[in-house]
Sequence to fold (245 residues):
Amino acid sequence: MSIHLVGGGRDETRLGAVYGGFANEAADHARARGAGEPRVAVVTVHEPDDVTQGAEKQAWFAAAVRATARVSCLPVALPEGAALEAGSLRGLDGMLVAGGLTPAYATALGPVAQEIRGLVADGMPYLGFSAGAAVAARRAIVGGYRQGDVVVCSPDCDEDLDELTVVEGLGLVDLTVEVHAAQWGPLTRLMAAVESGMVAAGVAVDEDTVLVAGDSATHVAGAGRVWWVSRDGAELRVRLEGAGL
Fold:
């Protein structure tokens, strides 16, 4: 099964391209274990005093997946600061982790990272949207717009952090993941992190675009592009893949 990394965006004309592969893999997983309709957990993290925000996220992502396949979506809504419990992961055929404040998602999922890796290793597909994609990495950028006194991206991308911050993520992919690439501009933050050695390499994914990482290959689908950033000695390299190329 695969890891689906979505760069954000809510273009409903792109649901099939962005979510269809994930939903089909969840259905395959359900069939393999002799189950009926696949069970997909939709994990959202919301501000503690804004339950309505969490409900709106739940409704949108459940509808996005159901638009592509017959799926039973199980809501897992957590307030910022809370941690996901391992019991929420039982009997799943897929896991969709939505977007929001990236450090809060790292806090919510970190305690069950090992359990999530085990489920994925056993064939459960994972889809991360925005923050959910960022925390899928082994070394995850969770925010910040400065390295010391140097501004490396817009303060609008700070995620309530000043200093560029990298934490241990879920470890589902080795590449560090940035999102909203062309739309918000965090590609420069990823480049700074790679150039300084904070992370080894990474990808920045545009909105309404998905990078699918399988067992031995990757592919890009949707409206935009994926920006691959790596380092070859002292040289920083950027390669593009996706729409229009």
Notes: The chain has seven helices and 15 strands. Residues 3-242 form a domain with the Rossmann fold fold (CATH 3.40.50.880). The longest strand covers residues 39-46.
